[in-house]
Automatic annotation (TrEMBL):
Residue ranges of every copy of the Metallo-beta-lactamase domain listed in the record: 38-214
InterPro entries: LACTB2_WH, Metallo-B-lactamas, RibonucZ/Hydroxyglut_hydro, Sec-metab_biosynth-thioest, WH-like_DNA-bd_sf
Keywords of this entry: Hydrolase
SUPFAM superfamilies (UniProt xref): Metallo-hydrolase/oxidoreductase (SSF56281)
Pfam families linked to this entry: Lactamase_B, WHD_BLACT
Entry keyword Hydrolase: yes
GO molecular function: hydrolase activity
Domain of life: Bacteria
Species for this entry: Phyllobacterium sophorae
Full protein name: MBL fold metallo-hydrolase
Amino acid sequence: MSLVFDSSFAPRYGEFVDIAPNVQRITVNNPSPFTFHGTNSYLVGRDTLALIDPGPLDEAHHATLLRAIAGRPVSHIFVSHTHRDHSPLATVMKDELGATIVAEGPHRPARALHIGEVNLLDASGDMEFVPDIAVPDNALIEGDGWALRVIHTPGHTANHVVFALESTGILFSADHVMAWATSIVAPPDGAMSDYMASLDRLLQRHDRVYFPGHGGPVTKPRTFVRGLKAHRKMRERAILERVRAGDRNIPAMVRVIYRETDPRLHGAAALSVLAHLEDLVGRGIVQTEGNPAIDGVYW
């Protein structure tokens, strides 16, 4: 199944954009190869609000959120995961608004670090984040005129969740599913086996639209998620082909598999290959000398 990305998106920095009844999007002006045009925050409700993914410590974005809130009470702040482009502003706005922070839990790796391994993604993790409510899978948090169901979707990070707005067909998919690109799955923050299982979890649902953490909506979710699964299986086959062709380390594989990808993203691509290799080793398909690593040897 082919996967068609949609990069059409107008961020409209400094504005709050109506995208569904009682749902507004506010995009941070923090574009990068990893954040696309920036991180999306969402306001849900009319009289008493929920705020989803307040974003980074950005003064202009903070001011725009407050203008969008317009003095209305905010009962809950929902955080999908603890990368620094999504969560740090939550604590600041909690103190301002008297809101309750809801998330799966604090930042943590998907697995223990191997001896001598350094977590290359530590700088991107919000290590100070602590939610007021560490919410279990499938929990329903209700507010004034809205209800959000929390669905655990580890993979991009160990603590990643998505939020379904009950009775609307809307799902806030954060960084798990985005229309413009595949999610980065990079050990030890994330795990490919978790990510694939989380995609299967979403395929069991019948949401009509996803509003992601970056970029525009996913308008045919089930078709797109099936495409993401097929894309990952294609990447897996490409890695196995490189192993059979004689490549014995990840940089050699990246140079071939990602030869048409922006070189600035080759570091992330290497981590994605590592995630696939960890999964392949776990399934007994590939063997390694020692634990899988960026500079490891495979056969």
